[in-house]
Structures are given as structure tokens and as C-alpha cells.
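Re: that chain you flagged

S.,

Sorry for the slow reply, it's been a week of failed gels. I finally had a moment to sit down with the sequence you sent. For the record, here it is as I used it:
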Amino acid sequence: MNDKKIFYDPSKLLSYNSFLNFVIGSRGVGKTYGFIKFCIQRFLKTGEQFIYTRRYATELDTSVPKFFDPYLKCPEFKDVEFKIKTSKKLSTFYINGKIAGFAVALSTSLVLKSTSFTDVKNIIFDEFIIDKGTYHY
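Prediction finished late last night. Pasting the C-alpha cells below so you have them in one place:
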């Protein structure tokens, strides 16, 4: 699969070395896919961990179980073992038996406020824009 032509590639954006980057674009162009793939590659190369966050735990309930599914078919990850351990407050992503990242809901982040994530270098805040309705920050 040659996903460079199909999915969003965050390389240029990340080359600016900005503290914060926000990507807004059409649904289904691979923004999340591209950034998670980048984080997997960084972990495999450097051991840098990542955090994947959403606003509410209910959003993680549906996204975390299938988190690695799109990457199982990537030729570059054919020999990589992905595993997920979930709990109510924090889910942990494992790559080749080592902790690669975490999934946490913004709504429960106060519970983890004293938790140290010393090896985390990237945070993906997915679906950060709230549509009109009853939800708010």
C-alpha cells in the first residue's frame, strides 16, 4: 500500500518544529492516520512515546479497541506487534512488548494530573473542534 499519495502526510507541518500544531481539513483524508503513523515510526526509531487524547471517555471507548487496525496492513509494520491494554482511566499502547503510548480522555485528565509521562514527546488531540450543541469545554 502506497499511503503517501492517499493519506495526509504530517512531515512538512512537523518540519517547522512548532510547539503546537493544529490541522483542520476534510473528513477522511487521513489526518489522524498520518499522525498516529508518525508516532509509531518515532517510537520504533527513538523510543519516544505519545498520548492520544479525545474529549470524553466515551469517544475513546469506540476508538481505542481498533486503534492499530489501519497499520496492521502497512508493509513497514509487517513484523511489528501491536497490543492495547485498557482501563477506566488510561489505556496503554504497546509496540513489540514495550509501552509506546497512552490514550486518555480530556474529561478525566484531572485524575492523572500527578502522573508523569517523561518519555512522551507527542500528543495527538483528535477531534478537538466541537460541533454546535450541548458539548463545551
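What I noticed first: The first helix runs from residue 11 to 15.

Talk soon,
D.
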